[in-house]
Amino acid sequence: MISFFQGEVQAIKPGHLVLVNGGFGLSIQVTVGTANQVRHGELVGLYTSLIVREDSLTLYGFLTEDERDTFNVLQTVSKIGPRTALQALEALTPDELRQAVISSDEKTLQRIPGIGKKSAQRMLIEIGDKLGTPTGNVKLGTTVSVAETEVIAGLVSLGYSEVSAQAAVEPFQGSDMNTSEMLRAALIQLGTNRG
Q: d(Cα 27, Cα 178) in Å, to the nearest integer?
């Protein structure tokens, strides 16, 4: 089991990093938030979880041990795999997840892409107290929204740099815009900046 990996950031792509150590590079799946916090050429250490499938070995990386442990607990819920668990950590911090589970807050859990009412109810039942109690770092509304994450990824796929995409989305952070509204506004912002 690879539980931690440290290396120099060789590449930053939407959804993953390539870290190199001793001439050996690993592609590690990460949240957009993690990718936004590292820089090319920087030495980074990630807590990791290796997911073994019949046709693949996929490494998921996190800046904190708490995020990695939360990721592993989320996968104990039936019908939640690593992709949804990673999306959960893009939408909510570990403490926000703990608070939502403790207070049986289905609406907060439904902010996770792919989690509807039934999935949220299943999470509440199956997670129980596995996540523990909040550590006091709950800051609702400070995480990147699902719409912001999707718009940044969409702009990058259209050929914009991640830095440009983030700058275009920044004026709309915390707004009630849905993904398509925010994408339209960000594209207008990018067009205006091109002059």
A: 31
In a domain, 140, yes or no: no
Distance, CA of 142 to CA of 171 (rounded, Å) = 14
Q: What is the CATH number of the domain that holds 114?
A: 1.10.150.20
Quickly list DSSP for 98-129: HHHHHTT-HHHHTTSTT--HHHHHHHHHHHTT
How many distinct structural domains can be found in the chain? 3
Mean pLDDT by 10 residues, the chain (195 residues): 92 92 94 91 95 93 95 94 94 92 91 92 91 66 65 82 79 81 86 61
DSSP 81: -
| Residues 119, 134: Cα–Cα separation, whole Å | 22
Measured in Å, how far apart are the chain's first and last C-alpha atoms? 51
pTM for the model = 0.68
CATH number of the domain bearing residue 21: 2.40.50.140
Examine residue 134 and state whether it is found in any structural domain, yes or no.
Answer: no
CATH number at residue 183: 1.10.8
